[in-house]
Write a structure and sequence with these properties.
This protein is of the alpha/beta class. The protein folds into two domains: 162 residues, no CATH class; 189 residues, no CATH class. Helices cover 51% and strands 8% of the residues. It has 17 helices and seven strands. Strand 3 and strand 4 form a beta hairpin. It is elongated, with a radius of gyration of 25 Å.
């Protein structure tokens, strides 16, 4: 395909329209349930009240606000692809924002800002109510809108969401994936979240509070789902594990043949076995001389142990469970493991070596 043909195909994939809308119109859309801002995303976006107040300050002062991107669904409702926090702040300001359970959130109480320090304590309605002329000024302020039309490719809005919310964002890659997954397939998102909160799994990975907040447990669950039963040759070529996981996730949620029940059972059984026979130190480096565990979670150990056990469970070739602890302890002295693991090894070079190793180590003789 020529350069010109690729460009033309790409332009046909993304069909857009755009114009400016007043904040009053944005408010009406939300009140009439004609726009979906995905309140579930709130946990991934961490604007403080100070940041929200700065946005309101910008609206009052006439400082331009970045465009909001939406995607038009088959039912005509708009899905917010980019601009969630801006719109959520506006809806919270006027007292109509609802959380993911449909409950009304407490209206925003403004803080002092750089140019309008007297904003502190004001609310849209309340003991210290914004003057009517200021509220009218806000409602008449316009925000540019870009619409991804429904004629666009089905996955185009998710690609757009990733591009708009990766880089310069406070989100981790997995938080972006979670948002994308929620937009693509809510039920599968809930399924993956439930797996990532499995008690045996949580005990085995023993992550820090920060890692849990940043959804690393969900990333590990996703790694398990897309890698545990994958053919080794499917890992070639892999240049970036983040892009690989995102691409595989899109396959997982869009393939009608995806066997959710089987993978869920393998996941649950794998970590039940690991937790019962090794426990919370399973993915920490073990000093074979002292028997003591050092450092934190090791992704390389996870890729060998968890994925090796899972593969053999599925193939009905798993070693006797009484042998698992000994195999895990011996892993840290395994020459092949030492050669292909560690902080200097990227996933693209590590996984093609470690996945076969895990499958072999935990295979019944």
């Amino acid at each position: 395909m020529t350069l010109e043909n690729e460009i033309e195909k790409g332009r046909q994939t993304l069909r857009t329209d755009g114009y400016a809308m007043s904040i009053g119109e944005w408010i009406s859309l939300y009140e009439n349930k004609e726009i979906e801002i995905h309140p579930e995303f709130q946990r991934f976006f961490r604007w403080s009240d100070a940041q929200k107040s700065r946005l309101v300050e910008s609206l009052i002062l006439g400082i331009p606000i970045p465009s909001v991107f939406v995607s038009q669904r088959e039912d005509g409702v708009w899905d917010v692809v980019d601009g969630l926090q801006r719109l959520s702040t506006i809806y919270e300001l006027v007292g109509i924002l609802k959380d993911e359970k449909g409950q009304a959130k407490e209206p925003l109480r403004l803080q002092k800002t750089k140019y309008i320090p007297s904003l502190e304590g004001y609310q849209w309605e309340g003991e210290k109510t914004l003057p009517e002329n200021i509220k009218l000024l806000v409602k008449r302020t316009k925000i540019n809108l870009s619409i991804l039309l429904r004629e666009s490719d089905e996955l185009a809005k998710y690609e757009l969401f990733q591009r708009l919310n990766t880089g310069g964002s406070s989100l981790t890659e997995q938080e972006v994936r979670n948002c994308v997954l929620l937009m693509v397939n809510r039920e599968r998102y809930i399924w993956l979240k439930d797996l990532s909160n499995n008690n045996h799994f949580i005990n085995c990975i023993s992550l820090s509070d920060r890692a849990m907040i940043e959804q690393y447990n969900v990333e590990l669950a996703l790694r398990f789902i897309v890698l545990a039963l994958s053919p080794i040759d499917s890992l070639f070529p892999m240049t970036d594990i983040g892009e690989f996981l995102t691409d595989k996730m899109n396959e997982v949620v869009s393939k009608p043949t995806f066997n959710q029940d089987t993978l869920g059972e393998i996941f649950t059984k794998t970590f039940e076995i690991i937790d019962n026979h090794v426990g919370e130190n399973v993915f920490r480096r073990r000093d074979t001389n002292t028997g003591k565990y050092k450092g934190g979670f090791s992704l390389s150990a996870f890729e060998v142990v968890a994925l090796g056990i899972a593969y053999n469970l599925n193939e009905n070739t798993l070693v006797d469970e009484s042998q698992i602890e000994g195999i895990v302890h011996a892993l840290w002295d395994n020459n092949e493991y030492q050669t292909n693991s560690g902080s200097g090894f990227r996933a693209a070079g590590r996984l093609p070596a470690l996945l076969p190793l895990g499958r072999q180590l935990f295979k019944r003789a």
